[in-house]
Specification:
There is one protein chain. The protein is an alpha+beta fold. It has two domains: 28-159, no CATH class; 163-249, no CATH class. It contains four helices and nine strands, in the order H-E-E-E-E-E-E-E-E-E-H-H-H. The protein has helices at residues 2-29, 162-192, 194-208, 222-249, and strands at residues 30-39, 44-51, 54-64, 68-69, 73-79, 87-97, 104-114, 126-130, 136-140. Strand 6 and strand 7 (104-114) form a beta hairpin. The longest helix is centred in the C-terminal third of the chain and has 31 residues, at 162-192. The N and C termini lie far apart (91 Å).
């Protein structure tokens, strides 16, 4: 009985010792790395990474604006030593507008890409790169896109196209036009129907800036109405100036 127990323990011990090298290799073969993304296209996209050989090795990324870079997410594991054939599947969804006034259209995009040799021979942070034509790639690098050792095909940070700049600028112009229209409408109401507009302005001021009208007796107060007219007039001037500057500086 004692011999049987000792034999059993020895068998278990030998089995454990025999398994240790395998476990050790598995635990140190891969290194977890942070992930980022840089977007050289004019389309917003979001992504996640998955190991085509190990579905448990996966991580969600962030939404990346056009001509921008994402923050840092954790973590995706890469082999400690680079070898040819290391692949990563990028599950992406990019968004675009068919026309300037249409809703965003989302399109799925899946690419399995190969990781090029590590910079300086060691695992670096993982960068998902979306090229101007929408093609996806992955590099492992602790260097950013504007560094001389950056391994990506495109060097430097994204530079927005003139077309994209104008689209963004036109949105700002449209907002400025809407602000001016609102200010002109309030000023016009104060001239055409001062009683109703004074009451509306008084109620609004009580909610947002009560301390500014504490010295006035109410909407019938002539000083209060003069104060409101001055605010509207100044707002119209400021909105016109802002709109004109945007128009003058449009790319």
């Amino acid at each position: 009985m004692a011999f049987s127990l000792i034999s059993t323990r020895r068998t278990i011990l030998l089995a454990c010792l025999g398994a240790l090298p395998v476990i050790g290799i598995c635990s140190t073969d891969k290194i977890p790395a942070n992930i980022h993304s840089v977007n050289y296209s004019d389309e917003e996209f979001e992504y996640r990474l998955e190991d085509p050989l190990d579905s448990s090795n996966r991580v969600n990324g962030e939404s990346v604006e056009p001509y921008a870079a994402s923050g840092t997410m954790c973590c995706y594991s890469l082999p400690k030593k680079w070898h040819s054939g290391i692949k990563v599947t990028v599950h992406a969804t990019y968004s675009f507008k068919k026309t300037p006034d249409s809703e965003l259209t989302e399109v799925p995009q899946v690419q399995t890409v190969e990781v090029p040799p590590y910079v300086d021979g060691k695992v670096g942070e993982i960068w998902v790169v979306r090229a101007a034509d929408g093609d996806l790639s992955v590099v492992s690098s602790d260097y950013q896109p504007n560094h001389a050792k950056w391994p990506g095909k495109v060097k430097g940070w994204p530079v927005p196209s003139v077309k994209y700049k104008r689209q963004r600028w036109d949105k700002l112009i449209k907002l400025a036009e809407e602000d001016l229209e609102t200010d002109l409408t309030l000023s016009k109401r104060m001239l055409e129907n001062p009683d109703a507009q004074a009451i509306a302005a008084c109620n609004s001021q009580k909610k947002i800036m009560p301390e500014n009208i504490a010295s006035f007796s109410g909407p019938e107060d002539i000083a209060f109405r003069r104060y409101i007219k001055d605010i509207y007039s100044e707002s119209v001037i400021n909105s016109r100036n802002k709109l004109q500057k945007l128009i003058d500086r449009r790319p």
